[in-house]
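Worked problem 6 (solution included).
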Amino acid sequence: MKLDRITTNPAQMNGQPCIRNLRLTVRRVIELVAIYPDRSELYAEFPALEEEDIQQSLLYASTQLADRIIDLPITYETVA
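Solution. The predicted structure is:
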């Protein structure tokens, strides 16, 4: 999936990734998804926001989280 709706501009919002050059950051979109479980309410409050904006925000955020492998010991000791 292309992230063509995610834009960055050093002169806007301190260079944070935004949605379509709007003053709406990816971070804020993810926060709004958590706050508004009902998407119709979300779209009523933010009419410029589109479903594709949300999808790309979530995808962008997931690419920023690195997977890491944690080595576990072979034997486990219990503490009494």
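Discussion: The longest strand covers residues 6-7.
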